């Protein structure tokens, strides 16, 4: 530590540049993983908020909510428990005077069933009839207000926003909660159909044919574009990490090369190579941690100034994973030139 | 038992036709309390002789012993320890660690060898004698050649080694400083019972030596 810190103090510019480089790399990784996680969340936020374990859909719907319909006949063969709820989905475009048009996911709920029961509002009340809706706060951010009268698709009549709820996103679109009656109108189906799906808080639910139960995870993975997005981001972050290893390793290698003459002097003095190796490693640790901390601060600052609509969010395991990855990367990079240090020959400094 | 001895030491560099012999059957021994001076022109093998004596380089053949212990039979780690605890090198290119102030050059030694170094009082006295007390907070980059040479001397002595090996310790110094350094080395031998070996072409150091050797074409001879 002693030598490591003294050297950083003396060579401020050189080490500043290296910390700056690690800062940029970690900043990029943080922001990218934050965006990836934010986007993933916008796919699933609504589902996550229900804390559901399984979803029953028509078995021929290819695990797609929008393809699934449950007939009233099928529904009659079931008695839903407290842990189960009907869900009707329809893609809608919301319009209101002096408000921007918004694409949204309409979700019809049965009052008193668990999704509706557990719905927490940030303002207003839940839908009490087929003409009332509760919208995600994204609507608020776009200027919509309680009491706004909204046209959904080209359906006759207006719907009134009577409440707002937070974190209601499905497939990267804000959710509008309403009744199953409204759903039927918006979906354009007769009362011969009951809903799109049965959602349950239990992993197992017994359902009659032609329904089939899927775990929430399977259901989420089959959301349109969800897996593809995640794969893309995972690969981007993965490649970035690999490039980070190489860049950091190259820098630390060059750095160590430049120090070898000094190390030779110290070796001539009898200072053990172990001491020099630990100096180099602790120095790499300081540089990487410094870069990470600054990168994290910059990320926080970026999140502050990003427009509200940009999905970026973090959770602890994600942050810990990214941070640990970069730290490990840096230490690995610093380990490569250790062989050079061990081989330093003090004779090289005996000037003639 | 001699503090340091070389017996029938040969050193060759290079291979085949470019093979040159730098040391030719060198025999040398020094006791604690003696200052030995090895004189020789540039390229005569002085640095080679000194680094072999201090275990930084190995001879092609022959034997080097410190306190009767053969360096060749020691593990590399033990040779490090020996250098750290028993041998003080004053290197010709008085290399100082560029990012440590003069004060920190000594602090670094404390880190690896917490015991057996000069006391703060003794260190201050040494720095005073060498005239470098006022520059303890400077980095080597800001020192003159003579100043950094004197710091290199102080650093080697700080470890309080039993054997002091100095390579051209006065090359960058004026006559007054040469006298100071000569006297310090002499005192180390006489008063502190160290074995001091100085290789140089600086004849001004002659008057401080107990024994004077000549190194010519790789052959070491003791002056009568
Ligand atoms: N590693 C080496 N490989 C090849 N030749 C070497 C090597 N080290 C020294 N020599 C040669 O050995 C000879 C003696 O070198 P040395 O450095 O011991 O001389 P010196 O007496 O210290 O000279 P100076 O007074 O200039 O410091 C020189 O001719 C030098 O070129
Ligand atoms: Mg020399």
TrEMBL record, chain A:
Cited InterPro entries: ABC-4/HrtB_transporter, ABC3_permease_C
Assigned keywords, A-Z: Cell membrane, Membrane, Transmembrane, Transmembrane helix, Transport
Protein name: Putative hemin transport system permease protein HrtB
Source superkingdom: Bacteria
Organism: Levilactobacillus namurensis DSM 19117
Bilayer topology: Multi-pass membrane protein
Chief location: membrane
Quaternary organization: The complex is composed of two ATP-binding proteins (HrtA), two transmembrane proteins (HrtB) and a solute-binding protein.
UniProtKB/TrEMBL annotation, chain B:
Superkingdom per UniProt: Bacteria
GO molecular function, one term: transmembrane transporter activity
Keyword Translocase attributed: no
Assigned GO CC terms: plasma membrane
Family annotation (SUPFAM superfamilies): P-loop containing nucleoside triphosphate hydrolases (SSF52540)
Chief place of localization: membrane
Membrane topology term: Peripheral membrane protein
Pfam families membership: ABC_tran
Stored InterPro entries: AAA+_ATPase, ABC_transporter-like_ATP-bd, ABC_transporter-like_CS, ABC_transpr_LolD-like, MacB-like_ATP-bd, P-loop_NTPase
Subcellular location: Cell membrane
Sequence similarity: Belongs to the ABC transporter superfamily. HrtA family.
Function summary: Part of the ABC transporter complex hrt involved in hemin import. Responsible for energy coupling to the transport system.
The protein's name: Putative hemin import ATP-binding protein HrtA
Taxonomic source organism: Levilactobacillus namurensis DSM 19117
